[in-house]
Design a protein that fits this description.
The chain is an alpha/beta fold. It has one domain: Macrophage Migration Inhibitory Factor, CATH 3.30.429.10. Helices cover 29% and strands 31% of the residues. It contains two helices and eight strands; from the N terminus they run βαββββαβββ. A four-stranded mixed sheet has the order 2-1-5-6, covered by helices on one side. The protein has a two-stranded antiparallel sheet with strand order 3-4. A two-stranded antiparallel ribbon has the order 7-8. β1, α1 and β2 form a beta-alpha-beta unit. α1 packs antiparallel against α2. The longest helix is centred in the last third of the chain and has 19 residues.
Length: 114
């Protein structure tokens, strides 16, 4: 049950949001046992992001939360794929794309912990 949330300093059109959501749905399979069927995706565009004390107008902070854990090499491939996607689709340079992973052991759903 993964969740990918993207904080973007740029605006997203609904078309671009839909396209990126679909692509993230494909990319999540880079993590063993994760599928689009259980993927949640969120976007926060026009987000004020400051880096190095300066407001950056072309930056992305992407949080990937996973129920359970994943091997480092799979997470590394996921970072590469997200950076490629956001650089290609949103024109955000890879040097301005930051990705974090949080592996969660206690995840509640449907009124109980999994």
């Amino acid at each position: 049950m993964p969740f990918i949330n993207s904080k973007l300093s740029i605006s997203l059109t609904k078309e671009k949001e839909t396209h990126i959501k679909q692509e993230l749905g494909k990319l999540i399979s880079l993590i063993p046992g994760k599928t689009e069927q259980w993927l949640m995706v969120g976007f926060e565009d026009n987000y004020n992001i400051f880096f190095g004390g300066e407001k950056n107008h072309n930056i992305a902070f992407v949080e990937v939360k996973l129920y359970g854990s994943a091997p480092k090499n799979n997470k590394d491939r996921m970072v590469e794929a997200i950076c490629n996607l956001y650089e290609t689709e949103l024109s955000i340079p890879k040097a301005n794309i930051f990705v974090t992973f949080q592996e969660i052991s206690d995840w509640g759903w449907n009124g109980r912990l999994l």
